[in-house]
Amino acid sequence: MKTMKDVAERARVSVSTVSHVLNGTRKVSEETRGEVLAAVEELSYRPNLLAKGLKTRRTFTMGLLISDIQNSFFTSVVRGVEDVALSRGYHLFLCNTDEDPVREDEYVSELVKKRVDGLMVAPSARREDHVGRLRAEGVPFVFVDRDVEGVDADVVSVDNRAGMRLIAEHLVGLGHRRIGMISGPLDKASGYERHLGLRDALVDLGVGMEASLVRFGDFRTSSGREGARELLSLSSPPTALVTANNQMTLGALLAINEMGLGVPGDVSVVGFDDPEWAPLTGPPLTTLAQPTYEMGVRAAKMLLDRIEDGPGNESKKVLLEPWLVVRGSTAPLKEQERVGRMLE
């Protein structure tokens, strides 16, 4: 097994210089750094992480708890986290809580037992006791995608309320007044913020949101399908439909198709999230896009700063800006009514 001394001899530098290059503990010239890394590659040298961990009291591992591994929203988030982690010598444990607070607590306990250096968590509920548990474990943590109301903790998420305002302004600008919503559950921060965001924006725009035009789902496809069926079966259905995440959007589109309705001829549709398949629907879907990769990158960097700098600094809350992607699934109300009459 090759040692750090072998690397130093191959690169013609001191052992301490090799250590500084691999651990990033001191600035080394780019030329020397390149020679050391080339020697590492040639010799297939692998650092002794156990010895390194004993010295630094770190395992160079992090945990990431996401709420639904089947949700494509998290794919880009995880990629951003992993890219940052690997670039700084850390490896990642990925856990799926399935929106289950009990499972989430179990994963936190197990990861702490494995002595991870820090945790990133998409909370399954807006629970203050959850934060107390994390803090009691003494492990640095960052919330991703969802905040916990009234709790002072590091958070990286999207500005859900601003995003819903963009959607509201778009639909009202097209002449829609009966705007329905398939909301996420109110015990999840993202569901709560998106529901209030749309409601408040519509009130500010002088339209308001009728309680009869709201259905609550669980961020899964089946609940979007059920909610859309109920809303579009009303005697006076909404002319526009807003869904609170990509999976419920998919469910809503399935219901619309099964009911023999057209988009946007019978109903305009806007989805929160901009999945890869959004431009492929017929017509292409108008969406509220989120900087998911950046969310992962920012969360990982924030956590690593906590790990390396130690506690004591004030918590940070980062709200990333979403943007509206207008495609073919929304239309002016008058045009929508005209198309609807043509199809009758």
From TrEMBL:
Domain HTH lacI-type: 2-56
Sorted UniProt keywords: DNA-binding, Repressor, Transcription, Transcription regulation
InterPro entries to which the protein is assigned, alphabetical: Cro/C1-type_HTH, HTH_LacI, LacI/GalR-like_sensor, Lambda_DNA-bd_dom_sf, Peripla_BP_I
Domain HTH cro/C1-type: 3-32
Record has DNA-binding as a keyword: yes
Keyword DNA-binding in annotation: yes
Alphabetized PROSITE patterns for the sequence: HTH_CROC1, HTH_LACI_1, HTH_LACI_2
Gene3D superfamilies: 3.40.50.2300, lambda repressor-like DNA-binding domains
Pfam families per the UniProt record, alphabetical: LacI, Peripla_BP_3
One example GO MF annotation: DNA-binding transcription factor activity
PANTHER family attached to this UniProt entry: HTH-TYPE TRANSCRIPTIONAL REPRESSOR PURR-RELATED, LACI-RELATED TRANSCRIPTIONAL REPRESSOR
Protein name per the record: LacI family DNA-binding transcriptional regulator
Organism: Rubrobacter tropicus
